[in-house]
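Render this sequence as a predicted structure.
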Amino acid sequence: MLSDSLRSLPVFEKARKRLDARDTELLRKGVDVSLTSPAPSGSFKVVFVLFSAGLSFVLGFNLLMLCERSLFTLPLLLPAVALLALSLWLAMYAALFGSRFVPCGSTVRNLERFLYANKLYVSHEDTLSNGTKRERIDSSLRLCVLVSGNMLTVRAFDDGNGYTSKLSKLEDMGLCSVIGRPLDSKSAGVGATDYVFRLRDDVRLQAVPRLLSSEPTGRLDAIPLTGELSWNFAHLPHMLIAGGTGGGKSTFLYYLIAEFMRLGNPNGFAGEVYICDPKNAELASLSHVIGSDRVGVSPAQIAKVVRLVRERMEERYQYMQDPERFRFGANAFTYGLNPVFLIFDEVAAFKAAADKKTFTEVWDNLTQLVLKARAANVFVILAMQQPRADTISTDIRDNLGARVSLGSLSDEGYRMTFGGSFDFLPIEERGTGYIMLDGWDAPKPFKAPFADYSKVDYPKELKRLYIAAQRRNGVSADNAEKEESAESVTD
């Protein structure tokens, strides 16, 4: 703690920034760690700086002694004091920054000790001429440390030296203790395994200030979920939200709906929202905001809404595949197609209320949307208390790129949501749970954006966002104002 305070002093600020900038640039490119080519020692630089400090002290002290002999030597007082101050500065510089003379020295040395302590190397003994034996390392597991923003990645490479079976077990060997942070995620690739650590704790978003904002987010293909994490629906299409009563599922849906309408920029690309609410609860009341033709409550209405969204998808495919405008490799944004979102709350309630024919039609359309709609910028969000196999089929669940649980679930509930078992902690706060995106090896703790909608008129603010979104997407201001006036009269 004292050394950190001393390093932050203005007299050391320039040196600290220079060393920080050097290490940051190296870590951005990636720093290799291997026992076959260990990091160089910084002892020579420390000795050189201490020698310079000693020399400055001797010169300064002698000049100071000369100043006492006569008035003619008094002008030497200033350089004497300067040399003594320089000697003190150099000594403290060597003490505070000596371990950092080697680029990324602390990180590299800690990982070298980790490799050595866990015997992640192959060596043999050499006998020297005096009869003593010395260990020589022939091969070692190779690591690479990379830092991007708030994330630090330790990449373990499989170079064919016999460490393949240990690549995915480094966290069990104490890697987290070496980094000093809990493991955020782990992903295994071809020939390498990435261990990702978050350098600073994530920040929970505040939903109400974002709801009251009039400015579009400027993003076309992603919704922020926390300060560091976003759901890029264009690459990870569709979402599953699981959670029991009181877990915060509905509040999270309100946040998503508002963010969908804030998508895009002044030139358009705001999201369009369709809602299916078989419980006829709060989501159903948003028909006064986005239009009754986009909100379904009864089985027949829900079938109509889902059919309408599928027709939107088919129309978009026909539009993009027209020979006169087809562009190979282009996406829906290239064709000027804004995102469309279908929110389906409580599939189990719909299944219980609908007849077999209606349910089969809706489920067939939902399956087609989940399997095909991504390229047309059409996305599905399914929300339910328990994603049971008899409620949501595996061919749909396996194609949901983002999965969120809010509130406490049973072991079976977590397994059905995330597709496997993991060590979960009890959930005590509303709006908290776990999240998993495609490519992650396990779910992560998640705090949904905090919202207290009791202090704002959510439907009124959402209507404002809806009108602004319609205008950005090309609906005339006059029509938008007519819709607003009509809704006001209805209310």
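Summary. The chain has a mean pLDDT of 86. The chain has 16 helices and 17 strands.
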